[in-house]
User: What shape does this take?
Amino acid sequence: MSKTITKAINKEWDELVETIPDDLEASAREQGALKRRRGIQSASDLLRLILMYATLRSLRNTALWADCMGLCSISQQAIEKRVLNSTAWLRHVLAVQLSGVIEVPREVTGLIRRLLIVDGSVIARPGSPGTEWRLHLNWQPFGQQPAGVMLTDEKQGESFEGLSLKANDLVIADRNYGIWRHIRVALEACAYFIIRLAWSNLPLVTPEGQPFDLIQWLKDLPEEQTEAEISVAATDDPERRPLRLVVGRLPKDKAREARERVKEEARKKKHESHPNTLLAAGFCILLTNLPAASCALRTVLSLYRIRWQVEWCFRRWKSLCLLDQLPAFPVDIAEPVLLAKLILILLMQRRLGHLPWRDWWLGDEPAPIVSSLVVAGYALLCHIIRPAWVLAQLLEDPTPFLRHLRSSRRKRSLQLADAARQFADLFIELSPAPGGT
Assistant: This one.
């Protein structure tokens, strides 16, 4: 490969790496990822090699691609060892990327500092008997930026802990967060929240300290009343901090669908649906500490409706970066591959964060389709990490790269080369002469 081509390839990569706020050389040594170089010239090259493997999902193809690029010339076994030794370092790189996340511009006099949607998603390898990892995400929908990303094992459930909630954040979360130990984290961080509740998971009391019967309150609401709220407090809160219980009645068709889902889930578990669960399924039940003077009941319900944005975010990430299609390797190598994919996602989202989202959201014209920009951003990063046009030399002359192209030493019946040897005497030549028929 010419020096001009190599320089062009490395320039784009160097510019991409510079967006990571970290001394990669120092952290790679400290985390044990680059104790001995042995063909790897720098921490930047090691990160590029790992990201290449995460996108190609083949050790052989990664070794071939890296050799064609002039990045390094090492075996696929050596690449596997490098990946296995880099798990701690990749966790570090993932964490430091969040420190450089672009802050969304805001009015300093506003009540809300940031609007965040918090959720979790399970990840497992193909054929796995169950959940192996849980991805926790703290998402800023209006800036299309993550404020927190955390990867844990299957034992750690969804929680606000570890997702860097700050004073005056507004966090929106689903029923999994509607229990006292999670709500306490938000209250102690002086953050606002809108959390959907299940009817039985959070005992409540009235402002006077009397037990509050949520189901009876729902039954007493007139059928024509579509929205309601009441002041309550969490039973387990020793300070009895005032909270607002806000409900919105679902349209009849949506309520019917919700109750059918409840019945279907009960049938799968081979028990009867609880009457209170069926009743509550017809409502959107929310708990918030937003002041009523600044945020009306209808606004609370409207804000919760954007929670689906984080689900779309997970869906885009999984379909595009194949988070849920990890290599069918042991868990020790699947984990660094998953971390590398998350690093790639954050690099992509950082690029999207430079776009004028605020102007688009507030403008009169429709905002761009996010999914199309995500696809374009991911394709661009893949091109920077492993530019496809460098493989032209492989097709022109594969001889220098035969070490990566030969099959393994294990025997398979009637390989093409074996067949060619067996039938060589039957044919004058095995391939047509130039210009022949």
Notes: Residues 95-367 form a domain with the Transposase Inhibitor Protein From Tn5; Chain A, domain 1 fold (CATH 3.90.350). Confidence is low (pLDDT under 50) at residues 104-109. The first strand starts at residue 114 and ends at 123.
